[in-house]
Amino acid sequence: MFFIPKEIELRIFDIDQNEVENRLKAMGAKHIADRDFKRVELLIKGKVSDVYKGYKMWARVRTDGKKTTVTLKERKGSAMHSTNEWEVEASDFKTAVQMFCKMYKPTIYEENKRIEYVYDGAQITMDKWPMLPWLLEIEGDSVRKVREIYKKLALKRKGTDVGNITLIEAYKKYGIDWVALTKRNTKKLEKLLSNS
Q1: Within 10 A of 189 (CB to CB), how many other CB atoms are there?
Q2: pLDDT in tens, 2-25
Q3: What are phi and psi of 53, to 5 degrees?
Q4: pTM for the complete prediction?
Q5: pLDDT tens digits, residue range 45-91?
Q6: What is the DSSP letter of 184?
């Protein structure tokens, strides 16, 4: 039987990052790392214009300068358990980007900051994206666990529960054209794709 790994995660926008970290520490969560990510995302299925509706299938090459991963995501809907995900490590970020861009159209290059914790087997992260408020992600092995952890956080600033929407949809929610925004990184993407 072929196993399809599920990504089960909840996204909460507009959180108070300091409040979340204080609550996590009080709960006994373990701080894993503060990361600065660079990524290239590539459209696998559909037209480039489909990014405005949310990807259906896309690939991501991402690095924090120490570890590089290549991830394939297949999105079936907006529920917490509606995304299939496959991920492997790569030895070199630039090489992986160049290889995948030979096969698929690169959609965007972007950078973001992440603060990562682990609690009761779940990954809890706070992400900061350009022009967006802090985003809380809770990823676990079941919808029930994810919901329980969010409830246990008991945040005063509840944020906006957005389920499992894509970042493009998130930017749209805040009235920002993400594709236009990422064009400021065109030169960085061109440099990655060059042989120099």
Answers
A1: 19
A2: 444 767 888 888 899 999 999 999
A3: -95, -10
A4: 0.84
A5: 665 555 545 557 788 999 999 999 999 888 776 666 667 889 999 99
A6: G
For residue 53, which amino acid is it? K
Mean pLDDT of 169-192: 85
Phi-psi region of 153 (alpha: psi -120 to 50; beta: other; left: phi over 0): alpha
Host H or E run for residue 10: strand 9-13
Q: How far apart are CA 135 and CA 89, in angstroms?
A: 25
Sequential DSSP letters for 49-110 = GGGGT--SEEEEEEE-SS-EEEEEEEE--SSTT-EEEEEEEES-HHHHHHHHHHHSEEEEEE
**Other CB atoms closer than 10 Å to residue 32's CB: what's the count?**
14
**Structural domains for the chain:** 6-193 (2.40.320.10)
Directed axis angle between helix 186-193 and helix 93-103, to 10°? 90
What's the whole-number mean pLDDT along residues 134-148? 92
